[in-house]
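[recover] target loaded
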């Protein structure tokens, strides 16, 4: 897991929490307004403005919040948006809900401070630009809410309104200052936790590396396959496994010796790492067999990588080997389907590799 994957997991957890908080706020305010509206009915003293109250304080604000919640929930679950766009979506959803509360329920002046809560939530997402954007938006919400209050409550004293406005602006500025401090503190904690994770991962990696090729070993492969299957539903692309068998490798050992055979294995491992851009998903299964896990890639990209590996291996030359001798590899690639066990998935790739050898070697067969 690199730092980007770690942050994505962190952001996704907070997106779900912010959505949950937003839904809770919506339900709570809706319920409170209904309870307040029921008092006249209970005491049999229904005012002439009761219908206006229901429309202004229950129907209109609740409808607006409900629409915002539905749209945000759909967007957060959409693969079309980036993780950062989803961060903005949930934060502006929360701000939209507190804005509606501030606009429609400003008979309680305390609601002018609600937008400050969005600042502290934004700080937890450790994005300075997002925090600044939310601060400007929250201040705009507070100012507009107070303007509505000035207009709709002419009976309140001018001194009270000015004092309230100054206090609200001051609290928002102070909240922005403290939110910045929280943001840097959370970022330091994330960095500290991830540094510790990396150190631990380095120790574990050493135990899972195969000593000759420095690829991950069979035990690491079993863990990786299990992890892929568990997270299959969260992936956006294909999940495929490739089993590679070097053609006629026994004859290399017999003719040139095991030491030179090791040189071929090391060279092939380095070739795969170069083509695939790293060794995270490359494994030595045993002997002259290797495994590659392809995660979240389209079929064309996977086939292109397989073709490059097969072709490049045939072009490799070794000093100890006759220059006319060409080495080759056969590869079986199998897609994972929901419900498959790790054994079934691996056996599907194994059968595809056998089919590639039976068809003449130096090729790959894909099973979708």
């Amino acid at each position: 897991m690199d730092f980007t994957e770690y942050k994505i997991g962190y952001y996704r957890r907070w997106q779900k929490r912010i959505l949950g908080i937003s839904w809770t706020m919506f339900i709570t305010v809706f319920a409170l307004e209904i309870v307040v509206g029921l008092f006249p009915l209970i005491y049999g003293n229904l005012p002439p403005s009761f219908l206006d109250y229901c429309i202004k304080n229950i129907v209109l604000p609740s409808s607006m919040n409900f629409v915002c919640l539905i749209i945000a929930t759909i967007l957060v679950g959409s693969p079309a948006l980036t993780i950062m766009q989803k961060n903005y979506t949930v934060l502006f959803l929360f701000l939209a809900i507190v804005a509606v509360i501030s606009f429609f329920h400003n008979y309680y002046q305390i609601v002018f401070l609600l937008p400050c809560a969005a600042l502290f939530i934004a700080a937890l997402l450790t994005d300075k630009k997002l925090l600044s954007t939310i601060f400007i938006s929250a201040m705009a919400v507070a100012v507009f809410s107070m303007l509505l209050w000035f207009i709709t409550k002419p009976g309140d004293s001018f001194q009270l309104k000015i004092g309230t406005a100054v206090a609200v602006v001051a609290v928002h500025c102070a909240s922005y200052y403290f939110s910045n401090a929280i943001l840097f503190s959370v970022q330091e904690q994330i960095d500290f936790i991830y540094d510790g994770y990396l150190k631990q991962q380095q120790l574990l990696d050493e135990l899972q590396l195969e000593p000759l090729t420095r690829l991950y070993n069979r035990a690491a492969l079993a863990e990786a396959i299990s992890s892929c299957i568990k997270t299959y539903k969260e992936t956006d692309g294909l999940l495929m496994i490739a089993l590679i068998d070097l053609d006629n490798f026994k004859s290399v050992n017999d003719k040139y010796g095991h030491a030179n055979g090791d040189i071929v294995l090391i060279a092939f491992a380095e070739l795969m790492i170069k083509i695939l851009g790293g060794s995270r998903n490359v494994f030595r299964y045993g002997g002259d067999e290797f495994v590659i896990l392809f995660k979240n890639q389209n079929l064309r990209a996977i086939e292109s990588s397989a073709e490059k590996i097969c072709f490049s291996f045939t072009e490799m030359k070794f000093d100890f080997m006759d220059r006319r001798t060409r080495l080759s590899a056969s590869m079986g690639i199998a897609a994972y389907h929901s419900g498959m066990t790790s054994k079934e998935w691996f056996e599907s790739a194994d059968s595809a590799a056998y089919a590639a050898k039976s068809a003449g070697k130096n090729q790959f067969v894909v099973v979708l």
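[recover] notes: The mean pLDDT is 88.
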